[in-house]
Give the backbone structure.
Amino acid sequence: MEIKNLPEDINVLYVKAESFPFGIKAAHEKLHSLVNEEDKRRYFGISWMNKNNEIEYLAAAEALNPNESDKYGCSTFTIRKGDYISETLLDWCKPEGRVAAVFQEMLKHPQLDKNGYCLEIYLNDTDMECLVKLQDKQRKYNDQN
């Protein structure tokens, strides 16, 4: 694992999965049916534990302009800039459960942002980068004083 910095916020459009983990594939399929596949955009998965101890999952695509959410009837989310713990998975779907195991290990990081989320960046059809948001340096400094 390594620390990766996202230098700027990323605005995305998303489709919320009906359930986790079983609704993930359907959410991505719906998202891909809405957005133009010819556009050069990045695709993501975003998840976190809600107050009912249930995992919420968003299948997301990079917004290419501010009005796209209206065009596609999607909601928006902002992936925050900053430091993330990161690990790249080649051929991520083999073996099954590998992604969950990587995120479970990452969630043990001592500088974890308690209001953060797990982030998947799909690099291509087989490879992904798994990231978990870390505390912002300024916030960490303020928390210690």
